[in-house]
Prior knowledge:
This protein is an alpha/beta fold.
Amino acid sequence: MDxxxxxxxxxxxxSGIGLALARQLVAQGSNVIGIGRSAERCWHAQQVLSKIxxxxxxxxxxxxxxxxxxxxQLAQQIKQQLTSWYVAYLDGLVNNAAILPFHxxxxxxGFDTQxxxxxxxxxxxxxxxxxxxxxxxxxxxxxVSSASHYHTYLxxxxxxxxxxxxxxxxxxxxxLAQVLFIHELNRRLHDHPNIKAFAADxxxxxxxxGLKGNSxxxxxxxxxxxxxxxxxxxxxxxxxxxxxxxxxxxxxxxxWRDSRPQSPxxxxxxxxxxxxxxxxxxxxxxxxx
Length: 289
Ligand SMILES: NC(=O)c1ccc[n+]([C@@H]2O[C@H](COP(=O)([O-])OP(=O)(O)OC[C@H]3O[C@@H](n4cnc5c(N)ncnc54)[C@H](OP(=O)(O)O)[C@@H]3O)[C@@H](O)[C@H]2O)c1
């Protein structure tokens, strides 16, 4: 058994499920690189978590994941951080950051902001960090998806919904794209059986996600709806399980809720669609021309 502490990257680690997950990982002895978009919230999270376990490496890096130029810079910074800690490899990446904006906005790079944060940033960061996981004994890539992914299909002619935006439709769309990506990623990792990818469904969770969408109407709905949700800590336990359980290395189940496998939307298992989304995403990210 590997006795070295494991090292994980968690995006969106300044609030909600991501912050709770970073806290649990630090508490059980893992090194954590948390990612956030606000310098103040990163500083605050680092202050709080560093008191939990002084024996692990912990840092927060700032990146606006809606901007792919910043995702590329972030990947470089993560690699530099590993080197400065004398850590030889990364044991896992959790693509957790997400938004639910009421109105559609477009980034300066020309992407729908929700598509960029919820799906594309994870696609790009995963591709850029995969080489750092090649030497890990049992690496894990997790996309935090949602049961919302069941209730949609991919609009191939308008993947970023520039012609038919609606906040929930866009959210479901990004959450289905994440699961399809995870399925295709596992297929492409056949030469690297030490790396497994999973989609995590945290269930309904009492966080502030629905209060950040710039809409008083959505704020009102979410304040009512989230009352039925579990705590971020409870949701994070299911993700920590996917990162740490040694038995999962041989699992062919890709979609998990509360530490149990579930059948995803069958559309997420379509091989042709998986290849197609990978190809389109690679072109969007200029990983291929
Ligand atoms: N809450 C639920 O019921 C629920 C259900 C199913 C799935 N999920 C999924 O769970 C994950 C976490 O959501 P949550 O409920 O914990 O929401 P949250 O509390 O709002 O956390 C989202 C995190 O993403 C960060 N973030 C947002 N935009 C970013 C950007 N452009 N660049 C970098 N970081 C950014 C946020 O930063 P700030 O702290 O600065 O806002 C925050 O740390 C998401 O993938 C969500 O889709 C949630």
